[in-house]
Amino acid sequence: PIQTARIMDGTSLAKRIVDEAAAKAAEISRRTGTRPCLATVLVGEDPASATYVRMKRARCAKAGIKSRHIGLPATTTTAELIDTLAGLSSDSEVHGILLQHPCGPHIDERAAFEAIAPEKDVDGVTMHSFAAMSFALPGFVSCTPGGIMRLLEAYDVELAGKHAVVVGRSAILGKPAGMLLLAEDATVTYCHSRTTDLSAVVREADVVVAAVGQPRLIRGEDIKPGAVVIDAGYNPGNVGDVDYDTALTRAGLITPVPGGVGPMTIAVLLTQTVQAAANQLGMQHQ
Ligand code: NDP
Questions:
Q1: Residue 275 is among the residues annotated as catalytic for this protein
Q2: Rounded Cα–Cα distance for residues 61 and 83 (Å)
Q3: Which residues form the Tetrahydrofolate dehydrogenase/cyclohydrolase catalytic domain (predicted)?
Q4: 56 catalytically annotated
Q5: Whole-prediction pTM value?
Q6: How far is CA 78 from each of CA 74, 96, 105, 115, rounded to the nearest angstrom?
Q7: Which of 13, 59, 173, 208 to mutate to test the pocket of ligand 1 (most atoms within 8 A of CB)?
Q8: Which ipTM did the prediction report?
Q9: CA of 94 to the centre of ligand 1 (A)
Q10: Is 100 marked active-site?
Q11: Nearest Cα residue to atom 17 of ligand 1
């Protein structure tokens, strides 16, 4: 079988978006004398989480965005974490706040997220941000779904009337991805761990968004010829949630893993941090 799919290049699109964010960050610094600043908060010493935070801070630095890191011990309580986030929420030198998660089983993550002021919720994790997104009101979107939408837009994927199947329904990925697709007039179906016949649903999809975290769960044979396949999954060994090799021979457009959705997530985080700074420094109409 021959490859039918065009590869969606998240790396180069993300680079363009980061360059735009960097230009805007420079303009903010020049006009206000203040550089946009992202606070990153990490509880404990999980190596993967620490790597993610380091990557995000390094990208910030390259884009001219300051970052301030707060590393808290693994023994931190929910109340202490909330105190830290509330402090950052009222600190005028901080424009965006990122709480790296998972925070550990003893932390009430939802309560912690809600301590982030909506205007600083550049990772789009609060109930306020989710509601604003759902009502199509101004606000920050969850970064990975936001990145998926930017990819679809950049590749001119027409969504109105299309059947979009989102596999996964987490609060930060699957669920908001479906809401954003709905806002673009797609007909949206969610699948999850209790879905009885995943293959049958995927076979009907014009657009598949895989957001599960299980290597090659989506069978290539189930991809409808010409469908758009967005694989947000990231599993050990650089493997996505879609059986990529087979999907390549059926899809019309497909994201690689890595180099598809991953880089877009950070690009949206930086864009939203710069936007938050612009808003807070009174530049929202520029
Ligand atoms: P979660 O574990 O929070 O959610 C996984 C979802 O998949 C749940 O809704 C779950 O269903 C569903 N699911 C589990 N098993 C199946 C199955 N057999 N069939 C159908 N659905 C199933 O994960 P996240 O949403 O946080 O992350 C998903 C993936 O995306 C991971 O690989 C993660 O690494 C990656 N990711 C990538 C990012 C990026 O920047 N590229 C950012 C964030 C995540 P149920 O609700 O019923 O339990």
A1: no
A2: 26
A3: 8-123
A4: yes
A5: 0.97
A6: 11, 20, 11, 11
A7: 173
A8: 0.99
A9: 30
A10: yes
A11: 193
